[in-house]
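EI: anyone free to look at a 464-residue chain?
SC: sure, send it
EI:
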Amino acid sequence: MGIALVWSIITVLVRWIFSKRRGAISYDSSDQTALYIRMLGDVRVRSQVGFEPERRGSHPYLGVDFRTLHSRAESAGSIPARRIRRLFSFQRHLLSSRLLRGAPHLNTLHILDEDYCGQAKCMLEKVGTWNFDIFLFDRLTNGNSLVFLTFHLLNQYGLIELFQLDMVKVRRFLVLVQEDYHNQNPYHNAVHAADVTQAMHCYLREPKLAQSLTSFDILLGLLAAATHDLDHPGVNQPFLIKTNHYLAALYRNTSVLENHHWRSAVGLLRETDLFSHLPAEDSLGIERQLGSLILATDISRQNDYLSRFRTHLDENSLCLGQSSHRHFSLQMALKCADICNPCRPWELSKQWSEKVTEEFFHQGDIEKKHKLEISPLCDSEANTIASVQIGFMTYVVEPLFAEWARFSDTRLSQTMLGHLGLNKASWSAMEPEASGSSEEGESEPTRATEEPSSRALSQGSQES
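SC: here you go
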């Protein structure tokens, strides 16, 4: 009897611990997907304990720890510096919290720290400009660009007050979101999420949208932008499928990463009780519509969305007075924000191009190591940064932004197309064969269109 009682207690405790684990999603038992998620557990916990699912198929699960996939060895001297950065970040958190409450400074922070805060604040005053340097802003905020920028925008739009959001819960939610991005990833990290959120803000301010969108639409748009690549593993969907990753099985090889980003975001919303004060129907509606926006970033469905968008524009049938049409316009805005890097000024666009290509090539190296078929654009021996970017711009970015300019014919849309043309010309100058339009050069871009979903997408939402 004693052993049975002890075993029962242990079982109850284990269940309680798993139910409280960060990242788990406590949907109703009727939600089959949620049941799977609770059974499988959190991705980070699985990788930490070395969990490896049952092997099946021709290519067993590789057991890759995606949290350290792109990490580099750090010297012992880098640890104190990292701790100092964390201290500064905590100090900034205290400072911003006091300022929001209108409380005076109780403790004087380091002059350098206050200078950095002041510079970041000056940058936020120009957060709506298209040449906003997210890399500089991230440095000024000690790697907290996503938290600071998103919180600022939510406050600037008056959403915190309007929806009666608890500022402590908002900040905790944003901190958890930022933490759940893999900052070891060269491209799909919290800085990319902050960049997409800033771009989304620029689009929300465009006259056609600004005059039509409701505060609820704006809230959804900003949250979707901030969480659209949450917990991205740094490899694309085809990689997860061919290695029999459990997420591919969970979502039946369909929008695997986008579904995971969405479910992860919902998990953090529920963990922080951000919308617990709203009626249950309203909070569930937010979760569903958030999912609809994030799922729209699946590059494999690019042609479907683009075709619908083009048809609306051809027939002049897009009525932003209807909630469904406003939601569709938000989907298109998020898709644009997700892959807008080629439309940024060259100094910014080039950095993003190098980062996304580094991530692609690293995946290709893993595929070579495990003797897997190398994904398109991931073979560093067959591709260059220039060739990858030229194909991506030609077959994915240009068609989308050409239609966006028809929808919102403003100075911003023309500026983006101008940068896109100049950036493409710059890459073409580095890749003479690509600009020569030889048969060999045409075959590669064609592959990029056929499978935009895996890596061409790369840059943006990339399916990841």
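EI: The two ends are 53 Å apart (CA to CA).
SC: 👍
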